[in-house]
User: Fold this.
Amino acid sequence: MITHSVEYLARGLVDRQGRLVEAGEPLASLQLACGGNLGGPLAIPELRAIAVKAGRLGLRLSRPFAALAAEDRIGGWVDAIPVQDGDGGCELGIASWHAEPIAMSDEDGQLARLRRELNRALPEFCARLDPRQAVLTVEASAPDLAELAADMIAGIGRPWTDFATVTGSMHDQPLHWRLLDGVVCEVAGSARRWTAWLEPLGLPEPGSTGFVLTLVSDQAAPVPPDDDAGVSGMPSLGEELAPVLRQPLGRVIAHAEAIRAKLAGPLPDIYAGYAGDMVDAGEHLLALIEDIADLEGVEASDFEVAFERIDLGEAARQAAAILGPRAQERDIVLVPPPQGEGQWARGEFRRVLQILINLIGNAIAYSPEESQVWIRLDREGRRATVTVADQGRGLSDAERSRVFDKFERLGRGGDGGSGLGLYISARLARAMEGELSVESAPGQGARFTLELAALD
Assistant:
């Protein structure tokens, strides 16, 4: 378990396969409430994504997270620390924890939660502070904040206000955190104005175990120059424009979701419906951006995967756990390989997970309600396979021959998708020296199979 000196409300240990092998309360209860069990895959998607990323990169990460229990919405802040043995495992430390009834009626509480979530949605900068507001950890995603991040890392242990110029007549810093929460500041290396938000950690005294500092700007991040843009001079969507577009688009979705949920007060249903359309359109556009960014990556001449020994069974169970809530919304039963059943193969785990999430997501979207989706493992000689089978309408011969084509949506269309998911998945399979195939007939569902080199 976690051995460093920082105090946490709850602790846990996640292995390299994403299983929660140790957990204290209330993390253990949340794992059960979200459909998981101790020793099984971590069932809180945001915590699982943070843990896997920290373990894979070997970096300590600090992130907000949210989860839905039976009657409460759980929010908090987690530190993810890679284990020292280098096996890809990760230690979790829950630094902040708050539970709110899903049907919360207190308007002030709703607005406070809304502000907190909007300020933390896709932050370009966040840092963990100790109770004296001294810097503990730093993470920045915007290029114009690189200088600030470097200065803070070099000055760990100093107050965060040493690295930012707070506008107004503020002296004797650091001030009480409530006086600094929401102040406008300037930082070296960035021409944008930033608003600083401080979230206190610890109970019963807010801030007793530290703070989370996020910097938010209402101005878009600058697009870095492209020295190799070619004749057209157009920037790359995947490497340059996508990170810039995610921030404002994420905020549009968050604000529209708040309007749809009527968090700021009563609203006629017709306008809530318009806000719902905005959410759907924003999420669709965000998905298109991600698809096109992935497309640029897999079609690049220097694209390659990081081969490793992977368990197709574990990848299938993780993909099913991630998409479980979506299946439940349509009363579709996901049937992944049972715990303990595995099939070792040569590939890259995160790419296999990406393929399976795409295949299972398609199966859920285009299967009838109250049906089943199966994920099965097999081995034929030196080839290991994982198959996703649904009970949808199936594909004709003509549709089946074109389903992996770029921008092709025959037989799987109607959702406004980009038509790139299966094309990208097939390219990823080939990059791992494998193959993605389909078997289907009208009225008999579809069976998509990923085949990779088997390992003993």
User: Anything to note?
Assistant: The chain has eleven helices and 18 strands. Residues 81 and 219 are 32 Å apart (CA to CA). Residues 104-108, 226-235, 411-416 have pLDDT under 50 and may be disordered.
